[in-house]
Design goal:
The longest helix is centred in the C-terminal third of the chain and has 19 residues. The strands form two sheets. The protein has a seven-stranded parallel beta sheet. It has two domains: 114 residues, 3-Layer(aba) Sandwich (Rossmann fold); 178 residues, Rossmann fold (3-Layer(aba) Sandwich). Helix 7 links the parallel strand 6 and strand 7. Helix 1 packs parallel to helix 11 and helix 5 crosses helix 7. The radius of gyration is 22 Å and the shape is elongated. The protein is of the alpha/beta class and 318 residues long. The protein is built from eleven helices and twelve strands. Pfam families: 2-Hacid_dh (PF00389), 2-Hacid_dh_C (PF02826). Belongs to the D-isomer specific 2-hydroxyacid dehydrogenase family. Keywords: NAD, Oxidoreductase. This is D-2-hydroxyacid dehydrogenase.
């Protein structure tokens, strides 16, 4: 009996051929995450992506499903407990976003240090003005919460600007391009010397609401906060209060507690805030990178029965 791979995302002909070459004994069928074919999915051993309404079909007791390759780095929207109970292997797309998201983080940092966000507003109003407060990244300290692919790439580029890099992770293990790595329990201590605090954390029970009034009040006066991780890791009201008081000089935000951000939300009108609509990880190279991960994992799966890259630890939720 032919084994089945169903991909719920669009793939180019070249990307399809890469998967078929890596899994010659499997059929590859494309589906639609917005309108999934449940009959097709009911026979899938491997699913690439996920779709609403497929849970009961693919996680039934006699389902042949053995492995899900998520299309995103975050997996909090998937039924993790049910997948764990069925002992389904789950891999994510961690690493796909490192280059484009690092570019967004550095864009925020450069805009704030060079006051480019105010320059754009001045241009729109035909106003020739500088308040003389422009600065630079050289010699500044950046604290990056999350030392995975995005955090590590950000630290690498920050080093090119001769910045001091401090990482914060669950383990506190040393990571290349970080001058120092502290544990999550030391986050409050770490932000005291930061000119920029970067949040790249996934959403887990431990990170939910982690950045709150206590953390923001511990920040150096005039620091900048950047969040490209998950919106729910930040108490928005506490962030706004820190911005209004001047404790924080500004914020670069790609993610929010509520998305889309309501039109009447106060963040829209704050001139010290730069926002992007949860698109920091968007890139025309996204699918290529996910397919590269999947093909590498497929080879390991055929050899050992388990993917080798980005295997999600259900106990950690990432």
């Amino acid at each position: 009996m032919t084994k089945s791979i169903v991909c719920l995302q669009h793939l180019s002909s070249g990307q399809q051929e890469m998967i078929r070459a890596a899994a010659p004994d499997y059929t590859l069928t494309l589906g639609d995450s917005r309108n999934p074919d449940l009959e097709l999915l009911s026979g899938a051993e491997i699913i690439i992506g996920w779709g609403k309404g497929i849970r009961d079909t693919v996680l039934r007791q006699d389902s042949p499903l053995r492995w899900v390759q998520a299309w995103s780095a975050g997996v909090e929207k998937l039924p993790l407990e049910a997948l764990k109970e069925r002992e389904i292997l789950l891999t994510n797309a961690s690493g796909v976003h490192a280059e484009p998201i690092t570019a967004v983080i550095l864009s925020f940092m450069l805009m704030f240090t060079r006051n480019m966000h105010t320059a754009i507003r001045n241009q729109q109003s035909r106003r020739w003005h500088s308040d003389g407060q422009e600065s630079e990244l050289t010699g500044k300290t950046v604290v990056i919460a999350g030392t995975g692919a995005i955090g590590s790439e950000t630290a690498r580029i920050a080093k090119a600007f001769r910045m001091k890099t401090i990482g914060v992770s669950r383990s506190g293990r040393p990571v290349e391009n970080f001058d120092q790595v502290l544990t999550t329990g030391e986050l409050k201590h770490s932000v005291r010397e930061a000119d920029f605090v970067i949040n790249t954390l996934p959403l887990t029970d431990e990170t939910r609401g982690l950045f709150d009034a206590e953390i923001f009040s511990a920040c150096k006066q005039g620091a900048y906060y950047i969040n490209i991780g998950r919106g729910v890791t930040t108490h928005t009201d506490d962030l706004i209060a820190a911005l209004n008081s001047g404790q924080l000089a500004g914020a670069g935000l790609d993610v929010f507690e509520t998305e889309p951000l309501p039109e009447d939300h106060p963040l829209w009108g704050m001139e010290q805030v730069i926002m992007t609509p949860h698109c920091a990880g968007v890139t025309d190279r996204y699918a290529d990178r996910v397919v590269d991960i999947f093909v590498e994992n497929m080879k390991a799966y055929l050899e050992s029965g388990k993917p080798s890259r980005n295997l999600v630890d259900y106990s950690r939720q990432y």
